[in-house]
Amino acid sequence: MLNFPSKLPQQGITIFSQMSALAQQLNALNLSQGFPDFPAPTALIEHLAEATRAGFNQYAAGDGWLALREQVAQLFQQRDGITLDPIHEITITPGATIGLYASIQALIRAGDEVIIFDPSYDSYAPAVQLAEGKSIHIPLLAPDFKVDWQRVAEQISERTRMIIVNTPHNPTGTIWGKQDWLNLIALIQDKNIVVLSDEVYEHLIFDGQRHYSALSFPELRDRSIVVGSFGKTFHVTGWKTGYCAASPMLMKLFRQVYQFANFCGVTPCQVALTHYMQQHPEHIQQLSNFYQSKRDQFITGLQQSAFRFTPAQGTYFQTVDYQDIRPDLNDIEMCQFLAEQHKIVAIPISVFYQQTPQNLRMLRFCFAKTEQTLTHACEILADV
Ligand code: PMP
Ligand code: GLN
Questions:
Q1: What does pTM read for this prediction?
Q2: What domains can you pick out in the chain, each with its CATH number?
Q3: How far does residue 344's CA lie from ligand 2's centre (Å)?
């Protein structure tokens, strides 16, 4: 007698779970799902052990460990010269995903439209669907994946309530420059539209470029929710600890929903991250160089291969074009081929599009890997 139609009927298992499982099954090198294969900093691990021994094992404050919120505020102050009130404007969440999800549930109602740039991170559209909103997908086209602002202007309607931005961008590794933000501001500043800005790769930015946070623009200061992730910054994706930052008005709306989605983040992880950030400010200062050298090792290796690419400007992902290798295979088939024949696993880009552009022949590799793993990966790819 049970009758429960799926709320997400089109949805299979995420591509990240699929590809990591494929790598395991074939004992192949896993450059698909984004996570480091090297250890987290020893001092951070020690702080976690200490925090659990010291008894930080019960619920944290729902809004997060205040000292950690203060660390986040300090980073915004140093980088963007903006003052965030850690009490009313920052919440620590168990990962960025729940921050994105709760933001969408808090602000989107049935029939509201949300603009999403494709290729887009896989959690955005389902969260909009569960809020009974409508995702309006605007494609970013290879090779540069720039926003077509004319098209954005055309797609904004009376029903548009949110635009989801992701910079540095997963999966393409591109970043938004100041002009992109100015274009966005011009289109929305007199409208009832918020920006949900996924900035989880904010500290991974290369070639001397800089990250512009949505909150750093006065015009967006009161109409943006920024989502961040300590997992990416401190090599601990499994700790699932992130943050949300927004004006008191938006933060209040966010917390009203978030408190029932998760209540609070993991206490000892928050304490450990706080102590580590207080004692090791150099970690973040050196992070771009740390990852830039990994990117450089990877792309130097790729130069010996038949893959074409534009170097990633940020994130720990490099996209490659395999048009010159197997144009007959679509990207999912190409991933299968690489996994089976060459024992290396990537992520197909088409899965991040609502409508795949014709002849898209691109894959994403994660270069958050040891020197040894990257050397091995480059050897494999040079042979493909
Ligand atoms: N947004 C983007 C663009 C991501 O790549 C990720 C990585 N998982 C997330 C959000 C989610 O981060 P978290 O693991 O902290 O939930
Ligand atoms: N963000 C990670 C990626 O893009 C994966 C996170 C997940 O597995 N959901 O690879």
A1: 0.97
A2: 15-40+283-382 (3.90.1150.10), 42-279 (3.40.640.10)
A3: 17
